[in-house]
């Protein structure tokens, strides 16, 4: 296949795009970027089904505008709902962490020696380790700390901007000049990368969460086993499941530790079940995410490790999207 000719305009557009991507990570703007893209892509996907039912230009604009408002409102309610849940007695995260620490301390007598030797000495030590980790990574945890209000403002403003851009797309059909056209093409590739990764990962996380919920809320209770924090673990499974591969490991660790509150045998059973789910996620990543961007799960994992080393938690979140965008650019130039 013939490689397309490279122009100065293309180089300038790439440099601006690369600078913007690094700027977002360096100045902690990733939550706002993702929120704005989510609103834009949702409106962009749904609006064709709404707009064609409203003949006339004005009706189409009004329909898309109302859709944007509805999407922003629903996303805001969803975030507020999660915050309320995790602040409730049944879903409070500090309670879950404290309970996990206590379970580990109480389970030391029934654990094999090779496992016991690798665990913290007691619950106080585990909680101290968790506290130190949170302190060391405070700058990377976007919604923690004194500047949480600023990040929330970024997200709300970005969602409004995403809705405005989606509305503008419905209102105009611009004929772009060469440089503007090149920049629009870059942002279009980035938007497609976001859509391919995030929406595909939502499907994967929903499937994993469904199987996990069946196991925790149906299978175990039918066997006479009631674990604490079932609702919280199900919600955590879905949220961290939005991170390819590594999210599944996080939720697995939580579920296995909580399962030890009943017995070591139940913890082993949970581990075996989750290993099957973990293998399912590899398959789903290969079929859904890999099929979308033509990438294997191991590729995404390598990129996530490298991005985490450079940018922390934000790098882990951004890695699949950035990687998908870069592959789109290379594929458009017929380089891969």
Describe, in plain words, how this protein is organized in 3D.
The protein is mostly helical. It has one domain (8-332). It has 13 helices and no strands. The chain has helices spanning 8-26, 30-51, 57-87, 93-106, 113-116, 123-136, 148-171, 178-222, 230-240, 246-259, 264-293, 297-311, 313-332. It starts with 7 loop residues before the first helix and ends with a helix. Mean pLDDT is 77; it is low at 141-145.
What does this entry show, briefly?
The protein has helices at about 10-25, 30-50, 55-85, 95-105, 115, 125-135, 150-170, 180-220, 230-240, 245-260, 265-295, 295-310, 315-330. It has about 325 residues and is mostly helical.
In terms of topology, how is this protein built?
Blueprint: H1 8-26, H2 30-51, H3 57-87, H4 93-106, H5 113-116, H6 123-136, H7 148-171, H8 178-222, H9 230-240, H10 246-259, H11 264-293, H12 297-311, H13 313-332
Helix pairs in contact: 1-8, 2-3, 2-7, 3-7, 4-6, 8-9, 8-11, 8-13, 9-10, 10-11, 12-13
